[in-house]
Specification:
Oligomer: single chain
Radius of gyration: 23 Å
Number of strands: 0
Helix content: over 70%
Largest sheet: none
Number of helices: 2
Distance between the termini: 39 Å
C-alpha cells in the first residue's frame, strides 16, 4: 500500500469534489433540457389548435406568451449552468502552483 504526500491527497480530494459538482450540474442541465423539450412540445401543440372567437384567441395568445417566457427562462438557466460547468472543469484541470500570465 502506497502512502501519498499531503499535497497529492489534497489535490486528489479536490478533484473528487469537482467531479461530483460537475456531475450534479450535468444532472440539473439534463433535467432542464427535458423540461424545455416538454414546454416546446406543449407550445407547438397549442399553436396548432384552432380557435373560435376572440376570447379563445386571447387566451391562446396569453398561454403562448407565458410558454415563450418559460422557454427563454429555461434556456437562460441552461446557459448559466453550462458556463458554471465549464468553469468547474477548467478549475479541476488547472495545475497547482501554476499561475497564468493572463489572469
Amino acid at each position: 500500500m502506497k502512502v501519498y504526500s499531503g499535497s497529492f491527497q489534497k489535490i486528489f480530494s479536490q478533484a473528487i469534489v469537482y467531479t461530483k459538482m460537475i456531475k450534479q450540474i450535468e444532472r440539473q442541465v439534463r433535467g432542464l433540457q427535458k423540461e424545455l423539450a416538454e414546454t416546446q412540445k406543449e407550445r407547438n401543440l397549442l399553436r396548432l389548435q384552432p380557435c373560435q372567437g376572440d376570447l379563445e384567441i386571447r387566451q391562446k395568445e396569453e398561454r403562448l406568451d407565458s410558454l415563450d417566457i418559460r422557454i427563454e427562462s429555461l434556456n437562460q438557466q441552461i446557459r448559466e449552468l453550462e458556463k458554471k460547468r465549464r468553469e468547474m472543469m477548467s478549475e479541476a484541470i488547472k495545475k497547482p502552483g501554476y499561475e497564468s500570465p493572463f489572469s
